[in-house]
Amino acid sequence: MDLFISMFAATIIAATPLIFAALGELVVEKSGVLNLGIEGMMLVGAAFGVWAHFAGLPMIVALAAAVLAGAAASLLFGVLALTFMTNQYAAGLALAIFGTGVSAFIGRGFGSTPVDAIQPIHLPGLSDIPVIGAMFFQYDPLVYFSFVMFGAVSWFLYRTKAGLALRAIGESPDSAHAIGFEVIKIRYLAVMFGGAMAGLGGAYLSLVYTPLWVENMTAGRGWIALALVVFAAWRPKRVILGAWLFGGMTILQLQGQAIGLKVPSELLSALPYLATIAVLVLISRNRQAMALDFPVSLAQPFRPKG
């Protein structure tokens, strides 16, 4: 039971940065924009979070710095893809490479110096409940905030007029523009929100999960976040499930290495990514289900007429 509880808790923690990044990208793609630069934005957020921490700033300010850094990086993508209408695939890949380089430059002086990580919070009464308390009420604040953001994104997309406008733009920007929606402005806001969430996901890695700066510490999580949006068929609820699946596979491979399974360590390390690919292949076979929430104008440029 203790092993199960520890693996359950570790899965929730491992999934948290993916939830942040994937929810942000979900909103971006719902607006009809495809940003492949999540990996770079997460790295920028991770680096700026550590930089602010070692500069002596409070942890909340370090998190804010990571969020702003991710949003600023996404703004570069927005200028290229929305204003100059460059190819969104190329602009996103350029952002991923740019973010990798910038983060390495910012973090070059930190080495492997440990960070004073954000600690789990103790909820009187709830945290002391046997089994249940250890499984659900002994996490750091950002884990709980990821669930808040899941609820907020779900509510925004499906319960607000602004969310309806965003989804309408993702379906048909020309029609949305014709009835008065500011397509480019709304897409810019969506892109910056996605960058902010990716920056927060990166900060979680460097300030909580690791906690220290390691170059390329996202280890492909940005690309997994992109895959999770497809896995989720553009639905927030499935993003959570996909993040837990990947987090669980990550913990399983770590556990397998810890107990000394006679399997090459490289294969165990690849296990989470192989599982993600397998799930995506299975889901993509049901094209009708995927098409239900697919943003029709995804990755298509838009130029206002008139």
Assembly state: single chain
Mean pLDDT: 90
Q: List the total number of helices.
A: 13
Low-pLDDT segments, ≥5 res: none
**Percent range for β-strand residues:** under 5%
N to C succession of SSEs: HHHHHHHHHHHHH
- Cα radius of gyration in angstroms: 19 Å
Molecular shape: globular
Topology, number of strands: 0
Output the keywords.
transmembrane helix, 71% helix, 0% strand, 306 residues, cell membrane, transmembrane transporter activity, mainly alpha, 13 helices, globular, ABC_transp_permease
Give a written overview of the molecule.
This protein is mainly alpha-helical and 306 residues long. The chain has one domain (2-226). It is built from 13 helices and no strands. It has helices at 2-30, 38-54, 59-83, 88-106, 132-136, 141-159, 161-171, 173-178, 183-209, 221-231, 236-258, 265-284, 287-291. The longest helix has 29 residues, at 2-30. 41% of the residues are buried.
Short description:
With 306 residues, the chain is mostly helical. The chain contains 13 helices and no strands.
